[in-house]
Queue: 4 jobs
Job 1
Amino acid sequence: MRTPAQIPAIAPKSPKSSDSSENELAPQSTGTYPPTRQPKPPQSPITERPIYTESARTVPRLSAWVESAAVDLHEYQGKELFRRVGIPVSEGRLVVSPEEARAAASSLGGPVVVKAQVLTGGRGKAGGVKLAETPADAEQKAREILGLDIRGHVVRRLWIEKASDIAKEYYLSITFDRGAKKPLFMFTTQGGVEIEQVAEENPDALVRLHLDPSEGFQPWVARRLVYGGRVEDPGEQKQIAAIVELLYRAFVEFDAMLCEINPLIVTPDGEVKALDSKFTVDDNALFRHPDISEMRDTAAADPIEAFAREKGVTYVKLDGDVGICGNGAGLSMSTVDVVAHVGGKPANFCDLGGGGSAQGVVDALEVITRDPQVKSIFFNVFGGITRGDEVARGILEALERLDMSKYPIVVRLDGTNAEEGRALLAKAGNPNIHAEATMLDGARRAVELAR
Ligand code: GDP
Ligand code: MN
């Protein structure tokens, strides 16, 4: 599914994706990235961006990773948040069985639309959105859609909504443009299709407009979007402008990273409303929103990531076979990149955090070894607050408590108490532990051992 990380990249296709030089309202490009005709550098498995060895380049990768830790809400949940701020949506019910679908349809009255609630877009094309004329028809359509596999997402819940008549389909969204350090509105009257397609085939029809967060929302922002999109009907102009303001309110109030309405429809009577919702909330702000925190669909997430969350381990599953554990997001991410750089495939991103305790190390190893793809594990620790002896103790403890016999563990310890840590590991004399002095050697060794 499309993540917010990819949205600002719509127009610029090069590694300049964090730079909005194609937007006349954005600051000019500094032009420091290599031109695209140079050979393509290896891609970071986390951000799918090129890997650069300069340390300055870790900054955009870090932010992109943080984005991937966001919480995606289902359509019905996003619509609930829309409703709370006053954005018009249709009445509907959440159901989990064909019988419930029938009951929901008869209580709503009239034709309904039966919609798969899965965390991926393009449900319509995949057969996950169907109109039903009668309650019996709704039951039948529910039977067809429940259990459907839409790009790996199995449908377990349905949203039954009063069907709308559609005269026009527009598109409206707000997201962060990290390059410009501002929220970015996008609006087009060419809605209903994937926005990337509009950006590619009909870029003039897509209005992009940044909002200065220190100024906050100004009515001219909405007017500029609406006029820029050449909406001519005054009734539509007014309603869309109001929705733009409400969408910004939802974006700020719920600490969102993306609020997208596609399609934003106009009915034959000229009424404008949100027919779909894509809502992504910054998970760092969840403590402020206990209700949204409960909306998080853990069943839809990766089971190892869900287990990691339970254990309090910062972990992102990747596709390779070298398990990785670092301390601090920056070093952990660099470790992922270096492993990829020396030809390996990282199995995960895992950050012990600062002040990592032995228990934290055991927990991290328990999470990493749940992934059946893992063949070797690379510990890359630069002690600051984190102490090398504590990490070593954690590794030895994990070796005692978990069945780690099939994993070669490469350890690179540096910084605070690194010598003590190395001495502890040497004393243990476990043949599965391989000490390396540098990050690069450690990565090479771990990749070799995974073969
Ligand atoms: P997506 O395919 O996952 O983006 O799901 P949407 O919620 O956007 O629905 C897909 C398409 O189904 C929309 O673009 C509409 O064309 C159509 N659709 C959804 N709800 C209704 C409705 O109430 N009435 C009609 N006529 N079409 C609908
Ligand atoms: Mn849609």
Job 2
Amino acid sequence: MGIGSTLMAGIGLGDPVIRLGVTGLSRAGKTVFITSLVANLMDRGRMHALRAAADGSIKAAWLQPQPDDTIPRFDFERHLAALTGPEPHWPEGTRHVSQLRLSLRLDGRGLLGGLTGPRTVHLDIVDYPGEWLLDLRLMEKDFSEWSAEVLDRMQGRPGAEEYQAALNGLDGDRFDEPVAQRLAQTYTAHLHAAREAGWSDCTPGRFLIPGEMEGSPALTFAPLPASFEGGRLHKEFRRRFDAYKSRVVKPFFRDHFARIDRQVVLVDVLGAIHQGPRAVEDMRRAMADILTAFRPGRAGWLAQLLGTRRVERILFAATKADHLHQVQHNRLTAILSAMLREARDRADFSGARTEAMSIAALRATTEDVIHQDGQELPAVRGRLLDGRQAAFYPGELPADPAAVLHPARDGADRWLDGDYAIMNFAPAPMTARPGDGPPHIRLDRAAEFLIGDRL
Ligand code: GDP
């Protein structure tokens, strides 16, 4: 093979690279999204809204070794086998940063329609937990400020009393590693319980998703009340908190975040709406926090780190839209847009193009109608994890997003109070024609927005 054909095979050094970040809080749908996106870029039969797929410009797509030797590879093959094997099941979700390189070979049509000769574009997909972006908030704070904030916020949340009890009677003048570990564990248990119950703003993010840092001293601290200030325990926790910021949070932003060109933020809006108004409000705040990372007036150290680089496009996607009949999809998108409005305006200001969409990366249902009490309810049909096949009506979303975001004080408004709670669908067995990727809803539109202009 001569040099020319080596370049044509797509390993040319100068080929353009698009780095696509995929994030969202745990269980938002990152793993399913990446797996289905890659499978659908390789088999493009269901990607009509991706212009370069529909008009045949993409001639081939294949996986390659990624350029970063020290970042774990996204386990595409295993996740795809889970979703599309003989007994389809959901893959394990994101637990750390991972990456995958998909190379796309494009024909001679250039970006402006002129003839450019065949080109190769590499799509480097970087998967990382949204929880880690939330740590940005903690960078501007010192240990005392952070402690005061989280101790205040934790009131009334699950596990708060246990943590309070663990603090009671502690001698702040002593430092013992087992005591530090017990406090950190009790605090982490509280964070997990709070997440389970629908709260989003839980820091430090690595306590929930430690990645490779599990058990290290930088992850073994917990918030302390002001009464502990001056004591040895407080001093050591303050030191570890600072180490967490400089050794864990900063390197993540430097090594991963700072290199992203395009970003998709996945949001389980339906899950939060189902949990109720407090979860929705909390998710709204967490999203606003996540977006501070993309704002022009961002913290000085981050601005320094990023220089003139910035994320050019950000897609916010409400995931798992296959739980709803399509007649409700516009309402879901409207709620997501309203939830992000303030934060989004600010990101727009920095020059990033943003868009909100409702998607299902892996469609597990088909549409149906349920006849009930003389009414026709727009439903979806699918197979539940327990094997039952049936049609379900999840309940209704309001036409006005304000009803979800600013509910009546009396808490009388309940949304998605139909079958939503029991709609644990399993991925549907594949019945794809050759050349088709896994079924989805609007994944092609998401891809067009994210990378279409570069193909
Ligand atoms: P991650 O933690 O962000 O990586 O989330 P996953 O990709 O593992 O998704 C979490 C769970 O959400 C999955 O196990 C599925 O139950 C559900 N899920 C994700 N995407 C879809 C989708 O497109 N349709 C449906 N019905 N469920 C989904």
Job 3
Amino acid sequence: PDTTTVSQYGVMRIAGYLLSELAQRYGTPLYIFDRATIINACQHYQEAFRQYYHASSVRIIYAAKAYLSPLIARTMAEQGMGLDVVSGGELSVAHHAGFPMENVSFHGNNKREDELYLALQLGVGRIVLDNWSELERLTRIAQETKKTPHVLLRIAPDVETDTHRYLQTGHAASKFGFPLNNGEAKAAIHAVLQEGRLHLAGLHAHTGTMLRETRPYEECLERLLDLATEVYEETGWWPEEVSPGGGWGIETADGVEVPGVYMLAQALQQTMERRLADNAALPVPTLIIEPGRSIIARAGVTLYRVGARKPTPGGITYLFVDGGMADNIRPALYGAHYTALPVEQLATPGEEVCISGRYCESGDMLIERVVLPQMREGDLLLLPTTGAYCLPMASNYNLVPRPAVILIDEQQVWQMERRETYTDLLMRYTE
Ligand code: LLP
């Protein structure tokens, strides 16, 4: 036998399950979420923020766009988290899961009329309005349905962030929010107050995602509180809640360190205290924080099976896996860095390879360069930290069925999404 590929130690487990057995049972590519890691992340956030805030003055809302399924929604509810949704689809999953609607915030920059009706009908706790059209649309619907939705206005606070261009959302030219620095934000607050149809609960901003410093959050919160103070002096309105959004980063294969979440909690508390020192008589607004990635990314891994190893005369050796850009577009779209591990410990010499997918694109690379023991057809490869924004952005490119998704803990495996079949694909065609 070719002993060079016989595994030496041979096992890699998550929550006690052999990954090779999970791959056998559910097929590959397979997305695996570890329940304990999700719960830890929620508790970690809550503990960090409760060091600096009373439990009643901070709300932590999971940004469902990072990954949502009914079971994840129920897990978030059990952990006392709120939920941030951005579409009728996400809202429907939350509703189907029995998520308490009063703890749901409905975000987005172009919510359709039917989505706003649905949100009101289901009794969503907060609607975050992005622009004048949305504001008018919701006001009209509130009038018609005789409801008084609680809203936050999303502000573009003109804060720069040190993250990929596609992941910045708080700058002056951002597509999101009422611009602060041309007076529109203030005008929108006045308009809501004057109209009186909507209950203006507070102000919201989100400056970007994959942030690794507290500065943008501090600047953002300062600007929201300064705006609120000006409006207070003009009208007597004061926010019940303020939110600098989500966006806290995670450590990835690029090796940049991310400070602990408690640093964020501390920075926000200090900013709030400093900014409100002159308004001591006013109630401190509830802080709302909306983490997505930093709750779910580390809990998810992807298992792929190697289909071929192809050295090229151009010097690159490819390792082809059975998934790729359709289940994880992030490397192609943002230059995101991942690393990979062979599931079985191989005694082969190390080599530099490019982990490439099965899709008909040269840009279909999950990892451009990584050193791995030489792998061959049939071996299993694991990509850690793929829990956020991979599956939600997955497509059926090349008409490849989307992978199965499981959640595991030491007692149980839940199949959250079954692998798509050719029948699923065919069902969408009507001619
Ligand atoms: N709140 C708001 C208003 C947001 O727009 C977002 C993310 C979050 C919270 C959660 O951000 P997080 O904590 O997950 O960073 N597809 C991109 C990420 C887009 C995030 C959009 N908004 C990616 O794969 O990196």
Job 4
Amino acid sequence: YVERTLAIIKPDAVKHAEEIEDIILNSGFTILQKRRVHLTPEQASEFYVEHYGKLFFPSLVAYMSSGPVIALALARENAISHWRMLVGPTSVTEAKETHPDSLRALYGTDQQRNGLHGSDSYTSAEWEVRFFFPDSIVEPIAVGQ
Ligand code: CMP
């Protein structure tokens, strides 16, 4: 069924945003909403709160608030898993070895500055879309049937 997911083009990949958006559209996604935003450290902490306490959390927050990001609400059949496949593994080294066509292999730098983000589940997708698009009046698209 058709569902939504949240994509983020991270600070180091924003310079490739046009190319990345072309790949997104050529991969069958619809861009429902798009926003360029420079997160404060507090907003980045809130977005990544599930990683609070991990060793990489402080540097992740610093990185994600170091410059503008582009948040996109994407829709297509099985958007969540398709977007994660297109994005590739978290580690850019692994992405380059095992998924050379993935967006992280193409536009990421390392484990942290990995170019892109994708929601990892239906629950996080709904929460993450609302985080960036709180005024959206769009009803949840996915109706598991
Ligand atoms: P993302 O998919 O946005 O979700 C959490 C982010 O934390 C991840 O991409 C990376 O940017 C970062 N991250 C995950 N694991 C590590 C790690 N081991 N070291 C540094 N950053 C990490």
